[in-house]
């Protein structure tokens, strides 16, 4: 049940009986057929414990369950929509950027401090991700929101990619990220180039970068 | 989004417009927008202030600004006139300066001065929505809404045209009271969006 791109800002999903789809509440634009939208009280998958986890972690964007038979179109706020197809690998993305995803994907919340300790938490604060982020894994598709078009940059071992924290959307694969600073005496006297902090991503995978430095 | 391949050479880009890079890069702020002290003073006085950084290194660097579209302009000795706000990135070989536009700049919301880019190389210009390039010929003057004007190249003369009549005065104007007219030979870049200007309000 992959998403079909209609234009840069709208995607269409085919809903079949027995299949479930999660989407941000209120992101439906139009639908045909017999489709039901029910607010997902737990805000996603994994039962009550996951719900509490999400509430605590502030990753609890209101979601709804989409079921039935038909075609549903999604879009939100005129933002660009990027479709990511997962085949057993993992996608890390902020919950408020997640427009819709297949029910076959496992959703969980991860603590950024678990990767790099205190630096991980600092990194989360600088990039505006907060202390937690959402992880999706399994087989299926996810539609991710971004301001401006999305560029996919491959990350291969020995070829790290540096990203402006504000332009970072998400990443997939076996990727380690760390915050690299380029602060010198210029920054101290207020003559910085505006690129003092960068996220350095290394490993094997893909990073998604948006064409803007604006948060959603 | 704009990708720039660098092999030890440098580009000048707007302050903070880098979104990602691979390889080795260094970012250095150029005080006063480059071109030395004279350029800096001129820029301060004219309000065409730019904060520019110099990007140097090896690899690919990606630039973007507020999800705007990017247009590449190839300059070979000609001059490009563009608003400082719309100039994203230039090759280090290009010179940027300021030029006086007079009263027509005033009403188009562009101020009295505009930025002039000269030399040989590429310049990246941002526009809100994909820009169209319109050719102006000898007998074909072009009129552009001041808010939709982005940049122009070539030997062009610009003048302000007003279509304001008595209906405009009583507040029933068509919303297109002021236009910039281009005569001569050259290219004009127009964006499918209008920024708010003094002329556009009439």
TrEMBL record, chain A:
Entries under InterPro entries matching the protein: AIM24, AIM24_sf, Trp_RNA-bd_attenuator-like_dom
Q: Which domain of life is it from?
A: Bacteria
Q: Mind telling me which Pfam families this protein's record contains?
A: AIM24
List the coiled-coil residues: none
Alphabetical list of PANTHER family matching this protein: ALTERED INHERITANCE OF MITOCHONDRIA PROTEIN 24, MITOCHONDRIAL
Q: What is this protein called?
A: AIM24 family protein
């Amino acid at each position: 049940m992959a998403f079909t791109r209609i234009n840069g800002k709208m995607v269409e999903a085919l809903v079949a009986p027995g299949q479930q789809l999660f989407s941000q509440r209120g992101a439906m634009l139009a639908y045909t057929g017999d489709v039901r939208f029910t607010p997902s009280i737990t805000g996603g998958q994994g039962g009550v414990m996951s719900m509490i986890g999400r509430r605590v972690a502030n990753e609890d964007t209101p979601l709804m369950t989409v079921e039935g038979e038909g075609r549903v179109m999604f879009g939100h706020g005129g933002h660009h929509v990027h479709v990511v197809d997962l085949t057993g690998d993992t996608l890390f993305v902020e919950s408020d950027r997640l427009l819709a995803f297949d029910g076959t994907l496992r959703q969980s919340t991860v603590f950024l401090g678990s990767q790099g300790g205190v630096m991980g938490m600092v990194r989360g604060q600088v990039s505006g991700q907060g202390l937690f982020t959402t992880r999706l894994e399994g087989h299926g598709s996810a539609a991710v929101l971004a301001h401006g078009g999305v560029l996919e940059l491959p990350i291969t071992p020995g070829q790290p990619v540096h990203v402006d924290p504000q332009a970072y959307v998400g990443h997939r694969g076996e990727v380690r990220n760390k915050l690299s600073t380029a602060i010198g005496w210029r920054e101290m006297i207020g003559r910085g180039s505006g690129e003092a902090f960068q996220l350095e991503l290394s490993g094997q995978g893909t990073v998604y970068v948006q064409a803007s430095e604006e948060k959603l | 989004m704009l990708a720039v391949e660098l092999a030890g050479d440098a580009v000048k880009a707007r302050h903070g417009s880098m979104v990602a890079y691979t390889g080795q890069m260094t970012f250095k702020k150029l005080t006063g927008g480059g071109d030395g002290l004279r350029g800096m003073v001129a820029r301060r006085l004219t309000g065409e202030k730019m904060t520019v950084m110099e990007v140097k290194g090896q690899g690919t660097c990606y630039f973007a600004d507020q999800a705007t579209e990017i247009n590449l302009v190839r300059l070979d000795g000609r001059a490009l006139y563009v608003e400082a706000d719309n100039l994203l990135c230039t090759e280090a070989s290009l010179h940027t300066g300021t030029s006086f536009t007079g009263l027509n700049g005033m009403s188009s919301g562009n101020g009295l001065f505009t930025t002039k880019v000269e030399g040989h190389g590429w310049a990246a210009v941002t526009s809100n929505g994909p820009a169209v390039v319109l050719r102006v010929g000898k007998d074909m003057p072009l009129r552009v809404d001041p808010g939709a004007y982005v940049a122009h190249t070539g030997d062009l003369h610009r003048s302000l045209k007003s279509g304001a009549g008595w209906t405009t005065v009583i507040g029933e104007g068509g919303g297109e009271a002021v236009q910039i007219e281009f005569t001569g030979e050259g290219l004009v870049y127009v964006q499918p969006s209008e920024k708010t200007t003094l002329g556009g309000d009439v």
